[in-house]
Give the backbone structure.
Amino acid sequence: MKSKGLLVIAAAICAAGILFFILINKIPVNTDVDVVAVNEIVKTVESHWPDTNREDYAAITLPFAILDTNGNLIYETSAGVFTTLNNAIKHNSTIVEITKGGLFIGKIIVVNDYKQTIHDIKHRLAMTVGIAFALLALLCGGYAIWLNRTVFKPFMRLQSFATNVATGNLDVPLPMSRHNPFGAFTESFDLMREQLAAARQSEYEANRSKKELVASLSHDIKTPVASIKAVIELMLVSATDEKVIRQLNTMYAKADQIHLLITDMFHAALEEMTQLHVTVSEQSSSILHEMFAKADYDERVHCEPIPPCLVLMDVSRLQQVIDNVISNAYKYAKTDVTVRCHIQNDYLEINIMDYGNGVDQDELPLLFNKFYRGANAEGQSGSGLGLFISNYLIQNMQGDTECYNRSDGFTVVLRLKLAS
Amino acid sequence: MSILNLIKANLRKGKGTVVSLILLIAAASLLLNVGLTIISSMSSFYEHKVEELSDPHVVMMMEQSDYKQENGDFFRNYDGVTATEVESILVMPSATMRFGDSDLNTALSLLDADTDRKLGPLKLIEKLDSVPDNEAIYLPYSYNRSGGYKLGDSITIAYQDKPYSYKVAGFFESTMLGTNNMGLIKMFLSGAAYEALSAKLGGDARGILISAAMQDMTRSTRILDDYHKVYPLVSEGATAKFHYMADIESMKQVNGLTVNMIAMILVAFAVVIVLAALLVIRFRVSNMIKDSVVNIGVLKALGYTNRQITSSHVGQFLLLSLLAGVIGVELSYLFFPQFGNILSTLTGLLWEQREAVVLNLISILFVMISVTLVALFTSLRVRKLHPVTALRGGLKTHSFKRNYFSLEKARGGLQLLHAGKSIMINSKQNLMITLIMIAVTFASVFSLALYDNIARDKTAFIHLVGAETSNVAVQAKSEAISGKLKAAIDGMDGVQRTAMMDTITTMVDGQSIFAYVSDDFAKLDNQMVYEGRFPKFDNEIAISWAVSKLIDKGIGDTVDVETGGAKHTYLVTGMSQSISNMGQAVYLTASGVQHLIPNYKGLLIQVYLDGMTNTQFITDVKAKYGAMASEVTDVDATIDSQSSIYSTAVAAVMGIVLVITVVVIVLILFMVVRTALLKRRRDFGIMKATGYTTSQLMNQLTFSYMPIMLVGVMIGGALGALCTNGILTVLLSSSGIHNVQFTIKLPMITALCIALVVLAYAVSMTAAYRMKHITPHGLITE
Amino acid sequence: MQNVWLKTEKLCKTFSSGGLQQHVLKNLDIRLMKGDFTVIMGSSGSGKSTLLYALSGMDKPTLGTIHFGDSEISKLNNDKLAIFRRNNCGFVFQQIHLLDNMSVLDNVLASGLLISRNKKETAARAKQLLTEVGLTEETWRKFPSQLSGGEAQRAGIVRALINKPAILFADEPTGALNSAASDSVLDVLTKMNQTGQSIVMVTHDIKTAMRGNRILFLRDGVIRGDMSLGPYQKGHSAERQEQLQDFLSDMRW
């Protein structure tokens, strides 16, 4: 893993070196004479001849000197420029003739400064080599330090760790450095220590929990055994004759059976007649809004906010009940209807209130009877079964119905059991 | 069999991922196919067109009075010439007409449409029969594409201050003289109109057109050189009398240059996007495989062999990439009309998309192989997994992490520190995003710089072409009075400066090369010399880079220049660059030319105005010195009309590049952010539980991408700013450019980069909005 | 007279999937008192975790209201709930859920700095709490993956407590731990409760439940039983356990 990084570094150094070398090589070494500049000097001198004002040559950077036909110095850019032809030839300087109108009028000596260039190159080379070696030395040093920190020191720590484990001291963890190249390696040592410690711990745990299990089981079995004992004791106390006991038991069971059969028969008949099969489910009270809206074909029902809760109901049967109650109100009271709900104990109480004449006080208890029709029902269609069935349905939803007169009208109360 | 079942199961699992992967692969193959098709069709586009239209390879025009039988015979007898035609035409050396939004001043040659010809026959693209015969004119297709003319429009040609009006009866396609950047345009007049105009203009306007076709069209340049060796151009003749020649090679060079440049940019961009897409695909594929590590564990436990599992994964991606590749290639055909449009605008030629089945196959195969390789390499890592490790869900290996951006110690807002932490987890992915951002930002900056320099502030581009951006050019009637005229114009109000700038044909070291002559190069706007300097003295010369390569001479060397029989040696002082004439040009001082042509003074005066409109100056000059000037041209208007074709094309390229950049940013960020939302659902759930709000977490996630986006955009922008010129130089080096100096406007690039970052922010915020659906509740159910 | 921290009225939670409705919580009226260590017990699927998350504002009830002090948290939108949680609630999860890309200390601070702008003060409090639960300075710097379960859960408790929450909610805090680690975690919770911290904890483990002084038994989304115990003290566990087991057997546990 880490050797990859090392290889990369080595490759990088190598690449940098090569790049450096190429760059150094690329720097142009120009010892040629700048012909264009020389031409400019010549042309400028020729155009100004015979004046040699310094200002005319302001743009020229090369040092030069002008000699006349006899070799006498006429002008030089700075003192020390080779003013004799011999000197100029000796130092590789450029000598150009000046002509004007085809006549030879003098010579220009332009100094070729190649020595300085060579000196520069030498200097640059020395610098490069120096820097390269310094970098290399730095790198080696850095690597040595890194190696010591990441490899040798952790190994040293591993040694003392091993000693601890060997002496049975399992609580001293192995310090792990974040940059440790042996992270996974040292960690597995530490894992080994933890596993050892955990194994020791779990052995202890297993022993203890076995004892606990025995204790709690013996306690649990006590309770049911006690109640069974109590029943047996009771029976033993009241029994006088063995035969009597058996006959009593049989009689009791048969009577019970008969009672169940009759109840079943009655319910079956009723269901057949009105198909009242109630499947109770838990529903949110918010659906009541919808149900009243469905029943409200005259749009005269004002439904007040319903407290949110979960109630037991059979949605389609409850709809049937609400339809019945609302239509009764429309039929007999012919007024607006107000629906008001609140939670009372374990019930959601739905008060359906009209503002009609109400029901005769004597008739109130009979309203929920089968085939009962009130005094005001004359001339109205109906079977007298509506409220009876509603009551039956609500009771099968574990609810309750009630009705009473108010000073300003009549109220039907439906109580729906809250889910629990 | 069982492998196929596995593939089916794999694909059914992540439909969303599969769809996005298909989109990406399709995009890659689309761009690849577009790029390949452009490259392959561009290399032979011109040749095919020349053949299809049976256009001549060389044309030469001269005044009828100059034409002698031997001129025509030269071409007929030249080795390699397959056909020659000589016909008489009408010539207007300087005519003005509307082109696009400005006036175009150019030389015109008018041909008789009713004459039969074998070379360059009239081939109409559109045609209107209802135009009466005596005013019907047929224009090159470029007049329709960039000139704004439609069938039935009228066109007025002003020649020698007289207007001639015609109705457009059709547009024709021609590779030769069909666009306005060759100095001369070819038009056809119906027989009746031709006769009428010929009678009106008289004998001076009669010209001769010599057309020739050759076996090998690349030798067309050569034939003109050889012609000049036999019939040297006398300097008076060259400037005073109309003479024009063109060969298909330089035609191709001039028109093909921009086309090639734009094609190359599109291709380069396509490559960038394809690489980006491949990177993303790699990321996607390895994610998909990593996500199914548990499944792999189950399969291994059931007894599937490594080979079966690997081939199911690889097969799945093989199928996907095949499907997506085909979709992409099909879609690419929607792009071609767009490209054809750009091409038609630039060349005035129709580009027909040919079915290139081989290229399509190559695109699909390339994409398929790349995706499959990625899948293969990722699956190989799965091979080594033991079923138990895989079942535990992990390619994870234990690693010591550093607690970056410690909340205790680091400074900065809480969300920023969180963002910093998550940056540190995904360094690989971040590197990928950064690279892609660098690439697309660079491409955007590049295309923006191109647009800015070619379509908006054209100076740099015009200088590159080698034209001088003076305001008005005045041509003197004769050399004797040109000096006087120049001095007079110098004295006029509103004139900032004037400079002589003329061209003559010369032989430089035996090569026929155009020479630009000026009395003072320092006064010119266009400083084409990039190394050394322009000639100052009479024995100096500057040569273009292309010439330098041709004759192998550099600064400090001497070259022999001859013209009209005289010969002189010059010292090279500088190297220049320009696109025109295949980059071949030399520059001489007026006094230098006098060594060759003793009486040379120059005719064309470039005028630079200051605080005066061109039209006003032109009226003034014509009123005051009309007698001395033979021609006054509005240079600005000419440049505008000539470069309009480039503007539209470059604008289109920029549009495409910017749109794709935006699409790439949107796609990548969406993908990355959505992946992060999936992968770090638990973390975000925990943070929501501890009371982080949705917007805080959205910002946290977004901020974790912003720094890398920022870095990518910044590097891309910087590269764009620094390297645009360098890349253009490389692109254009074959056409004689050595050092492009387009102005890079930093504020504009900065604005673009800021816009990209803002876009990135907006996109990642939008993508991160899904954070809303992460609830702490998810922690219980998991 | 004890103060009521949290009060629910007809709290219902319904999950519906594919048209099928499942009522997990039904008309719950619960009052949680200040300073109590309330334990919610029940078999799995009884809705105890759902109740915990509804009470703590992690999840919105389907019906009914929840009042925390004077504010009705069942009416808050998601962001307001998040702010409510960071100000008033601390959470301890069964799966611990530390952020694994940062150190233990940063995990604590990631919560703490949500409220406090004062880094130094918060860091000092975090360190003090970490020390209190028995985590050494060395563990603060570790990553969650390097911790044992008990250590991680204790760090989780510190994270929950850093903002001085009104109530600490713990969802089976010992569910994923071995018994030694469980004890260490429970000891911390007991200690915190003794210093006045209100705690609501969900568990189905009797030993864990013994730490509470009020046990709510939940079955089928309804509170079936509510029992108070004396304050927990070490050493009296046998008697307490018997009391609890009687209660649970009444509940047909």
Observations:
- Residues 531 and 575 of chain B are 5 Å apart (CA to CA).
- Residues 478-627 of chain B form one domain.
- The longest helix of chain B spans residues 635-679.
